[in-house]
Amino acid sequence: MNRLRLIQIQLLVTALLATPCVGRAQTLYTVVLGNQNHVVGSSTLESGLFVSYDRGESWSQLGPRNLKAYDMDAVVSEGGRVLYIAAGNGVHRSVDSGKSWKIVTGWEMTEVLDIAVDQEEPRFLYAATPFGLWWSQDGGESWTKTRDSIGTTYVYRVEHHGYRNERTLELYTGRRQQPSLRLASDSGAVLPHSLEEFARIDQNDSCLWSDAYAVIGVNPGTRNLQTRTLYTDSIRVMEQSGSSHGNALVCAGAFTPVGTPLPSPVHALIAIEDPWPYRMIVGTFGDGLFSRRNGEWVQSGLPGAQVWSIRSFTYR
Amino acid sequence: MTEGRIVKSIVAVAACLAIFVAGSVVMSAQMAGPSDAFRQEALEHVAGNDARNFHFVAAKLRTGRDTAFAWRQLDSLLDGPTGDMFWTYPATAFYFYCNDLLSDDLKDRFRQVWKRWTPYRGDTENHFLMYYETLYLMSQEWPDLPGYEWFNGKSSRENFLEAEEYLIRWIDETVTLGQTEWDSPRYFYFYVLPLLTLYDHADDPAMRLRAGMMLEYLLADYAVDYLDGRYCGAHSRDGDGSVIDPLDAEARSWSDFYWEDSLSLILPDLVFGAMSKFRCPAIIRDIAHDRDSTFTSYELKRSRAKMRYSEETYTPVYRTTWMSSRCAIGSIQGGLQQPIQQHSWDVTFAGAQQNRTLFGLHPYASGYELGMFFPEEPELMEAGILGSKASYGSPDKWVGGSPFEEIRQHERSLFAHYNIPPGTRFGHVDLFIPKNPFTKVRTEPGRWQLHAIDELDLVTAYRIDRCDSALVIDEGEYVRLRLFGGMIDYTVITGLDAIDLPDALSEYKRLAREDSITAHTTEPRAHYLFQTPHLRSKVGSGVLQMECRGARRTLDFVRGEIRGE
After folding, report:
1. Residue B536 neighbours by CB distance under 10 Å
2. Spatial separation of the C-alpha atoms in residues A164 and A234, rounded to whole Å
3. Integer CA distances (angstroms), A236 to A205, A239, A244, A248, B313, in order
4. Which chain B residues are within 8 Å of A285, Cβ to Cβ?
5. Closest Cα in chain A, distance from residue B439 (Å)
6. B261 phi and psi, to 5 degrees?
7. In the beta sheet, which residues pair with residue A183?
8. Could you please report the per-residue DSSP string of A49-112?
9. Distance CA B146, CA B115 (A)
10. Is the backbone peptide bond immediately before A275 cis, with ω within 30 degrees of 0?
11. Beta-carbon separation of B384 and A89 below 8 A
12. Distance between CA A149 and CA B258 in Å, rounded?
């Protein structure tokens, strides 16, 4: 329990070649699962999708209230108009910046833990569920799942990356300490047919996954930040003390706690770089959002919330 | 749904429904009560209650009692929906059963709720039934509406087809592969009204027929395990109250209503049961009461969907129940088949008093169990639930399964084994032994304990075969026998006459020896969903045959027929 209550920000002194994933004029989204006392059928605090346009200073709710929600994604090229929520009762889609929503999945899909948009071709979507991976080729109007092992494996998270001519789909299966999987395509969209097509991603250092649900990689020199995901196609070389390692990420050494323990476990973490030095917003599971003020963690929004994820988008 | 998917759904569903519509329906010659007079009595009784819910409003309006107050309550209910599907299913029932009483304005208020308020779909079998039953009927009621008129953004057509598809698939899977939320004294209650409402108000005759057949199916499943108001044996989900007093179970409200002409336990849904056209077939009532001879039932169920730690999403659950006129002993094979509320075995006794049951469990609680059935991170759930002092993490709880529990049963003899690793939460096994029904207790050499219920002329015996130590805790109306040790074994035998004790002891020893061999060497019965003197259904057949005292009734879900003699 103590271990869970400590937030350990993994500060990795690595050279990241990725462009910053957070930038100016960013829109933040927080996805709230519920509250600690929620029981299906009882009244509950508002949950679901929340949005901030002022770097987390204030939040407003988008979409259905009382929604057991896990994650979200947006079509970047649509400037925030097209949004998806991964929720317990399926995938919700909005095409008007969150003013109205539609559940685009049916009775077969339940407990959708994550949703990923192929930003190169946004009609391709991927949904992670405890009962397998689903994907759509028409913006969510219809969904496919194979009978193969990919259709029955617990998929916790799905990430899609496009880099030059290659697109990569990554699955995090089982518990977060389990190996994750990657399938790459150099000819367009990734349409997986079986789990066996995926290559295992080696995690060379268990310390990266020991206590944290989210990780920040920081390069103080370039001020590049990479949050939430450690493996992207845009990372080609990572240097630590002069050595380079392909796509593997090497633990930098001992990690130090940042600030005093938070009242609830940390489930989401994001860094806002504007203005620099970056500011962290932490999503806790049961006490909402916290940010650093004068060296202390301060409750900064959605009190009581079980925050599942925080996402950031920079819309052009 | 896209148009293409809609078309596919229409074709698939139409094929199923065509079979149903074309099939002939031969009704059983005899239907049981409750009588019209008894139904009216039930309505009058409920109308006297002032609780704020759709049920009591309906009762008042139908009996013409306190109607002004009832209308005000209805107004309040529609102003503030809350409770997800637990609000929508009685609201839907009210809308349809009292539709002739509603003004156009009130009907529109119901419409607006379904437009503006989002009920969650839930995560259990009963949740999904409630959700899709209400969606089916309300989209039937308001057809041709576009997506922006519904809380979920789907059109009336999309909602109707999705709900229809789910309901048909749920019924088909249950009657061919087995139920996942099976034999629950608590949640059985919540299956009845959604099926009644479909039976009475679906426009589609095939859906009405299916709903009625499904209700009979569930009632029959309950009937074979029924004894003197109690739902006997192992349960997928049991309540904290009903596990120690089976008369406290919500299911009894319906069994009293359909089989006993009794209102001893009136729960709200009965109001609509009283208004319904559904009549329980006499054969099911007779199955519930046919205890002239002892018999053993074998049932095949399924676990709740497993997300982790299992090669199969649904694992088989082998349920055995030995039944007599005085008591029943029933069990499953153990292991984790349901989260939190599993009840793996018990002995249940007939009689009017409370707490007529004896059972045991390993009070297990861990992130492993939670992670098996719920999607969140196991360690997160464990920290949250166990840290909140909820009963799940209590060493004294009386519900829950365990991965370290293994049970074997042969007829009236049950053998429980526990192999609990060091460091497990918790390291003991508890037996619940009520004081009340037992008027004599004998301790015999060899650790046999004999408990006699004089009024039943019945002796139940148990023997602790292995443990490191034991603690007897007097908890007022019952005794908690706490067994400690890494390996714990015990034997329970029931149904024996209260014969002379020396003879009884030798009889128990013989049974323990012989039945143990049979129990541990017999393969589980994996080919029948029901293999009992009263019910028979082969896995995959979609057909349930009922038989009792010369009467027969067959529910054929494949051909869409009810056949009876």
Report:
1. 17
2. 9
3. 18, 10, 9, 9, 39
4. 380, 384
5. 42
6. 45, 50
7. A169
8. EEEESSTTS--EEES-SS--EEEEEE-GGGTTSSEEEEETTEEEEESSTTSS-EE---TT----
9. 11
10. yes
11. no
12. 46
**Which pLDDT score is estimated for A14?**
32
Mutation target for A interface from B129, B154, B366, B377: give the one with most A CBs within 10 A. Answer: B377
Contact predicate B94/B109, CB 8 Å: no
CA distance A31 to A20: 22
Q: How many residues are recorded in chain A? A: 316
* Span between the terminal Cα atoms of chain B, in Å: 44
Q: What is the pLDDT of residues B493-505, one digit of tens each?
A: 999 887 665 677 7
Any idea which residue has 């569930």 for tokens?
Answer: B218
Contact at CB, B123 and A33, closer than 8 angstroms: no
Q: How many contacts does A have with B, using Cβ atoms within 8 A?
A: 98
CA–CA dist A294, A301 (Å, integer): 17
d(CA B180, CA B314) in angstroms, rounded, equals: 8
The C-alpha angle with vertex B290 and arms to B289 and B296, in degrees rounded to 5, equals: 115
φ/ψ bin of A304: left (φ > 0), alpha (ψ from -120 to 50), beta (otherwise)? left
Closest-CA distance of chain A to residue B287, Å: 34
A192 neighbors A135 (Cβ within 8 angstroms): yes
Q: Mind telling me how many Å the CA of A223 is from chain B's nearest CA?
A: 32
Q: What type of residue is B363?
A: P
CA torsion, ordered B390, B392, B395, B401, to nearest 10 deg: 170
* Predicted confidence (pLDDT) per residue in B183-238, tens digit: 999 999 999 999 999 999 999 999 999 999 999 999 999 999 999 999 999 999 99
* pLDDT higher at B347 or B41: B347
Chain A partners within 8 Å of B128 (Cβ) = 107
Chain centroid to Cα B140, Å, comes to 28
CB < 8 Å to B1, chain A: 106, 141-142
**Please, which residues bridge with residue A67 across strands?**
none
Tokens representing B334 are 């153990």
Model pLDDT, residue B152: 97
Residue in B82, B132, B151 closest to A107 by CB: B132
* A193-225 burial: b if 16+ Cβ within 10 Å, else e: eebebbeebebeeebbbebbbbbbbbbeeeebb
Point out which residues pair with B551 in neighbouring strands.
B548
| B389 contact partners, CB below 8 Å, separation of at least 6 | none
Q: How far is CA A255 from CA A53, A249, A290, in A?
A: 32, 15, 20
Counted residue by residue, chain B has a size of: 565
- Which structure tokens are listed for A223? 């001020």
CA pair distance A92, B169, nearest whole angstrom: 23
| Cα separation, B249 vs B187, whole angstroms | 9
**Residue B345 is encoded by which pair of tokens?**
């075995």
From CA B357, how far away is CA B345, in angstroms rounded?
10
Which two structure tokens, joined as six digits, stand for A222? 């370039």
Share of chain A above pLDDT 70, in %: 66
- Residue B277 is predicted with a pLDDT of 95
Contact A130 B4 (CB under 8 A): no
- Chain A residues whose CB is inside 8 A of the B5 CB are 141-142
Cα separation, B418 vs B434, in Å, equals 22
Residue B343 is given by DSSP the state: B
Give me chain B's average pLDDT, please.
91
Residues from chain B that touch A107, judged by Cβ atoms under 8 A, are 128, 132, 162, 165-166, 169
Q: What is the CA radius of gyration of chain B?
A: 24
A73: left (phi over 0), alpha (psi -120 to 50) or beta: beta
